Amino acid sequence: MSGHVMKGRILRLCQKELRETIRDRRTVMTLLIMPLLLYPLLSMALNRFLLTSGARPTNVFLVGVATEREGELLRSYLDDPQSAPPDSVAKSSGGGIAEFDIRLSEEIDPVDALYANQIDLAVEIKFEEPPQVIITAFRGDGGSQNARRILVERLQWLRSNFAQHVAKMLAPDYRPPADIVVDEIGQEDELPLLATIVPLVLVLMTITGAVYPAIDLTAGERERGTMESLMASPVPRFYVLFAKYIAVVIVALLTAMINLLAMFTTLWVSGMMRFLTGDDAFPLIAVLQILGLLVLFSGFFSALLLCLTSFAKSFKEAQAYLIPVMLLALAPGMLSLMPGVELSGPLAIAPLISIVLLARDLLAGAFNPVGALAAIVSTIGYASAALAVASRLFGADAVTRTSEQSIGSFFHRPQKVTPVPSVESAALMLSLLVPIYFVGSNGLMRFLQIFGDSVSLSAKFWLNILTLLLTFGLVPFVATYLGRHRFRSTFRLQMPPLLSFVGVILIGLGAWTLAHEAFVIAEAIGIGGLSEERIEQALGQLAAWKQVPPWLLLLTFAVAPAVIEELCFRGFLFSSFLRVMSPARTIVLTAVLFGLFHVFTGNALLIERFIPTTLLGLILGWIAYRTGSVLPGMLMHLVHNGLLEMVGRYHEHFQFFGSDLDDQAHLPLMWLVVASAIAVAGAGIVWASTREVKVGQTK
């Protein structure tokens, strides 16, 4: 057999194995869906943690006092230069001096404010001779304990310096016991966070991508009974295994690359990149370096996993082999976090350990060329040895007669037109919508942070509409087109009874009170709530929005969300879920998804929006089911949002909103009764007008 023919067969084998692997849905989930969903959610959760934990600069502490007199006296103590530590002591602590933000707590006792985590310290001053300062910290809270220690030290320095001043006045020959001088030697050897975290992440990324295809292409072949057909193939056993190896390497490499790009993109658009690299800029050079390292990681792990799975006779047995390996692989990854471990000597050729240390040194910007070369060569040698062992263990088990479909056929439009999307199509659309929405909303924020001063307020509103259109509008539209679903039935665009439009207008006029009460109740039970800073920001936005025309405000926050969001949630998703779920479950599921997407705003989790938005989603879902159309829900959504925006714009004309908005208070009882009656009347009209309609079904 000529070399040209053999190369052709090997190439066809590689294409076949890769095609069969990538077409598997479980591989697609690991390769594409999981990283696109995981990193935005982790970033938003981390941002929410930073927001709710009241994170502030570590050298600023909040101190609560009960009276202005106490605050003025404490401030005079801290502003006195004699309370500052000597330069030598300050230098030993990094050179900075902690700051104290003294706040007057009139409505609540400072100790109660400390219990509520509103302040770091509670201070009470008894005006005696001399004044007695009582400092209260929260037991078990490291920040509060640290604030108390620093405040006590500041007051002690004040007392000490005052005592020394008096001593010098009374005894001119007085000298302090000792002068303190602080010095340092040596070179700082602290690795950047990027160099310590990424090597461990690379291990997890590549293992995750390689495990399933390695099992499926070896033990899976045996379990499916396709080994015998491979023996009939006129290709050496090693070439068959090599084709499987190439498929596993490519899948592992693609998985790691998508994870890597998703991670860095998420950190960059959310403004959290500085925590990893110390800079907000996208680390393009570091990403390119890591991509080169991924080839080594993928090649090594793929060979190792194929070698181990070649022992197994079933899927379960292969999983039992690989679980301990996955756990053991984390140990070398942890070496990147340990100081003093260098890529030299035996560690330069130790399996896996060498490439982990190489990744750490490369990202740190300083590596030993000899050790790096040894790590690369030894890793290639270990991978080759693992493949040689696997080829001996691996039976005659490569199949050549499989489906003639190509990888691209996975993305082809189906031949048959369907009325509505399947649940699988809806799940895929949702999984893509999460990262697209996350990148779109955060990208808009990043753009406004950089160019906000040069962009007019009206232009910002148009950008908001464009972002909404490109996410909740474009993604379902493309999914409908690619899935070859009918647009009219998918988005439920049929015309409902005209009287139902009257009913939904009344519901929209009254439902806002339910949303407001739900928000207040959620805040009372500890779910979200607006801080004073957030309320001030909201009021500032309301004042700024008065500069734009009312029609643009309504278009941005009423018309665009009403049309685009309803087409997505009560159109595409509702029609898909209603195929396989009961109406009640469909209404609840779409409402919960509606609430969750409003929680995922920007790069933080705004939990306080979940309950009122989900409640609104339940009402909209019921309207969509009763009328069999998305159009009445659009109108109700528009009226609801438009009323809230107009009230916010002209809130100073309403006594309630002008005086009690800051208190997040319940609405007056009369407001609730009237608004509820209007909403109930509207619901009655919708119900009565749709009695002749086969509710929930498309026409």
TrEMBL record:
Q: Which Pfam families match?
A: ABC2_membrane_2 (PF12679), Rce1-like (PF02517)
A GO term, aspect molecular function: endopeptidase activity
Q: Which residues form the CAAX prenyl protease 2/Lysostaphin resistance protein A-like domain?
A: 549-642
**Keywords for the protein's UniProt record, in alphabetical order:** Membrane, Transmembrane, Transmembrane helix
Where, by residue number, does the polypeptide cross the bilayer?
28-46, 193-217, 238-264, 284-308, 320-337, 343-363, 370-394, 420-440, 461-482, 502-530, 551-574, 586-607, 614-639, 669-689
> Which GO biological process entries does UniProt record here?
CAAX-box protein maturation
- GO CC list: plasma membrane
Q: Tell me the superkingdom of the source.
A: Bacteria
What is the official name of this protein in its record? Sodium extrusion ABC transporter,permease protein
